[in-house]
Amino acid sequence: MNAQPKLPVALVEDDVPFRGYIAALLDASDRWRVVLEASSVEAALRASVKAVPRVLLLDVDLPGNSGAASVGRFCAAWPGVCVVMLSGLDQDEVVLEAIREGASGYLRKDASSDEVLAAVEEAVEGGAPMSRTIARRVLALVRTVPLGAEESAPGGGAGEGETERKRDGEKGRKEVAAAMPLLTPREHEVVALVAEGLSDKQIAERLGTAVSTVKNHLANVYVKWRVRSRTEAAVKFSRQGR
After folding, report:
1. SS3 for 136?
2. 20: which residues sit within 8 A by CB, 6+ positions away?
3. Cβ pair 60, 69 in contact under 8 A
4. What are the boundaries of each domain within the chain?
5. What is residue 153's predicted lDDT score, i.e. its pLDDT?
6. Is the pLDDT of residue 156 over 60?
7. pLDDT at residue 236 is higher than 90
8. Does the pLDDT of residue 170 top 60, yes or no?
9. pTM of the entire structure?
10. Which of 101, 207, 209, 230 could form a disulfide linkage to 72, CB 3.0–4.6 angstroms apart?
11. Is pLDDT at 169 greater than 80 in this prediction?
12. What is the CATH topology of the domain spanning 167-238?
């Protein structure tokens, strides 16, 4: 029996020793092969790849354009790529920025080898690899800071900026409330569990159904809500305050 071809992964990280460790870890597996290594966003986007990466491991802090602010550029250049952010710190603002841009997950650089491999696997299967601590922070932040809201202008005080944020937050809640009736009861149940941080497997076990069924429900949610990942779906669900 022929072995299944390895899935392509791109790695954009300016810490050369750490990048080498991740590349060696992935290449040594039976599942992944690194098709691109780069130290900056610009170098990665200029490089030619033999296969479009299925997963991109992207450092949040890079020389030149930051990784967090460049997720959208990679998603446009490599349609269908799953972006997992890498960072040595739990950075709330960076996590939100990356999610806005379309990142699927977030991985600390002190994660174990097994955690790295599990995160890449979860991302390509449609999951959102993210530590429980980060997941809780993200959901807490989006309940108070609406996605897309502008920050107050420097020196502008809380008046106009605060009013605009409240207005944007109320608009976001109304948009989500209007979208909710589009979901079936089971779709609503699934996305609620996603917002709690459960994986597809955990949701399937909770609901007593197959993992493939959970994935189908999530796919329907993505279409109805016009989101690109389970993380975005969880964020949108949480914005309504439920």
Report:
1. helix
2. none
3. no
4. 7-139, 167-238
5. 39
6. no
7. no
8. no
9. 0.63
10. 101
11. no
12. Arc Repressor Mutant, subunit A (1.10.10)
